[in-house]
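Q: What would this complex look like in 3D?
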Amino acid sequence: MSEAQLQSPIVGARRIETTALFARYATLIALVALIIFNVAHPHNFLTWQTLSVNLTQVATIVIVGVGMTLVIATGGIDLSVGSLMAISGAICARIILGKVVNLGEIHFAVAVGMIAGVGIAGAFGWFNGWMITRFKIQPIIATLVLFIAGRGLAQVLTNGDLQPLKIPEFQWIGLGRIGALPGGFPGVPVQVIIMVALVAAAAYALRRSLFGRQILAIGGNERAARLAGVPVAQVKRWVYCISGLCAGVAGLVVIAINSSSDANLVGLDMELDAIAAVAVGGTLLSGGRATVTGTLLGALIIQLVRYTLLANGIPDDYAKIVKAGLIVAAVWLQGQGRS
Amino acid sequence: MTASSLLSMRAISKAFAGIPALSSASLEVGSGEVHALVGQNGAGKSTMIKILTGYVRRAEGEIIFDGAPFESRSPQDAQSRGISTIYQEINLVPFRSVTENICLGREKRRYGLLDWPAMHAEANALLARFKIDVDVRKPLLRYNTATQQMVAIARAIGFSAKLVIMDEPTSSLDEREVAVLFDVIRHLKAEGVSVIFVSHKLDELYAVCDRVTIMRDGRTVKSANMNAISKLELVAAMLGRDIAQVAKSATAFGERRGRVGDVVLTATNLSAGHKVHDVSLNVRRGEIVGLAGLLGAGRTETARLVFGADPLRSGSLTLDGSPLAPQAPIDAIKRGIGFSPEDRKAEGTVPDMSVAENLTLALMPQLARAGIVDEAKQREIVEKFISRLGIKCSGPDQKIRELSGGNQQKVLLARWLAMNPKLVILDEPTRGIDVGAKAEIQTLIKELADQGLSVLMISSELEEVIEGSDRVFVLREGRNAAEFSHAQINEDAVMAAMAHGEDTEREVRAE
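A: Here is my prediction, written as structure tokens for the whole assembly.
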């Protein structure tokens, strides 16, 4: 056998042992298994309606999960995302409802409301990154600040009241569909399109962009990255800012679906759902290795398990236990893949 | 002396995914014998040790330890049966006290609670044997790396070992501490404990070892009494070359051909922290300047100030005549300075990233167009450096952590060479690297200087500083102790300056 053959990638691939291979594709295998199981059971699984419902359910988790994946790739964590969703929702709703200033034309008001909501959530995200890099506070503590204060702020902004928001021009992002056909195809939900676009952009950026490489270098070895000239503080601030922006978008989608903004409920427990999706998706929680598409698959698996259990008459409380089991399995598999 | 055999490993073979790491290798160690195990990186030393300690299962062969067949399932298993291992890296808990570290995993209990007096007493007794003067109640991180290393050694020997494996134990020790370690090894030997000693420093082997086993390409090529084999024979066997081919000089720097030009870097009265006080130095174009000193003399700290890795309290820097005030490494990098750190694993490589990504980590911003990395261009540059520096890897996409130490170091050098720098600072460029790769790196440094690159080189290996440098600055306790150029550089003078600093300077002036 010649040198060249020895070094070919095919031989390299064969070297990966079975467990490592299984660990690498475990997320995908689990997803396929779940789909096959559901197809075999008569609950009208293979309908556009079912797919649409499931995708809609995961859209906000995945949107937040995209930012969370980037944060975790640097070796950090962002607990504030749920609260930032509430802030974004509260601000957007108040602007659209004309409670801040009267903007007159409804499309203009919707645009300003959305930009302000997402922008302010992004600014708070930047604040997280600033605290972490300026004062060397551990990310879990730094983002805990806004986890607590953020929801309080959202409640203060709205006096704790539920704000009804029946504005079709705005709710399109949560309820609208694109590509409906006269033959009966209802179209793809707008939020699913937002989700797919964000996943695609982030996956591409992580793999091919300078920013993505810098994120992974920081997560892989922060000291080495700094000594190689990676602007660690700047990259981290941007990453937390992006996480805030993603949370802001998710906040808008939620209030659009609910036809109201409720600071007490919007984004509740979202940080945990997003982290779970990232973990099940195969991103290394200590940083340095990350997959955005994995996060999408992770969220889909968690959702499908829940759907499967509910469709078979098992209460939602049990689904939570199964979800925890999934996380344990994912982390265990990650350990197998490493060695 | 070696009448009875303690350990006998025969015809050991092991392959990783079809690629042989060991082919019928053997190792015989007698009771109370200090046995050197040498070979280049990849020769199979560490696989041999990992099989013995139970990290890795052997595929073929037999092991007899202490008169009975031996098969270790895990390092704990090996330890409980009398085989202790001391690694290069310190595997201790820095925040806990010295006592806790020594007694970790075998704490003494009384009435269900920890028996602190007994544990402190045991720790003190053990450390006394090593002549280490520390307060066992204080956290380990209060003490320097060398002391921590000694604590690790004490801990391993505390397990009533019959065989102690030392994998490059001296790489982070200074000369005095090496002497203490050697005393301990002799003491162990007198008690009948055997030692397997892995080191790249030949002088150490001759100082302390009885026998030597030389490995190459997964085979045992030679076993001999230490006093029956010359240094040259030893190196020749390791490299698989004729003695005639092995150069007579200890390092591979050779004659300098390049011309030394104008001053590139000046550092004036640098001060920072508790470790650097008024240090001044300068480096000319195409010059290799050695920075010598004992452990803790402030060499690395000074280098980090030049590179902007740590904040400067006072003093000034110039590069090519204009002021240099780096707030962060990126500022120094933009001015054409590179820095290859001492601890490759902690500060150099990003282990999960590929050779290509590690090599271009500093260059990356220049490879990106509109924020997207030009992968074709990256590959071209990486392949150029892989062949130019002879980096042994399966290709640009291989993970850097799978490479040997020497090849990792070459990737880190290439990281800076790709930037076309004016000055590179090399902190212990050949530490923990096998003899062959070491010579290659030394030759490379010399060639680069000949081509006009300025090099500031820190090395704890005296011969590297003496043979490699055009000028040497000696630091002692964070201050300039002496400066030697060309003809003045010799081992005695540099060593004297490292040890006595200012006195030597005065003596030199008196002459």
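A: To summarize the key features: The two ends of chain B are 50 Å apart (CA to CA). The domain at 5-245 of chain B is CATH 3.40.50.300 (Rossmann fold).
Q: Very helpful, thank you.
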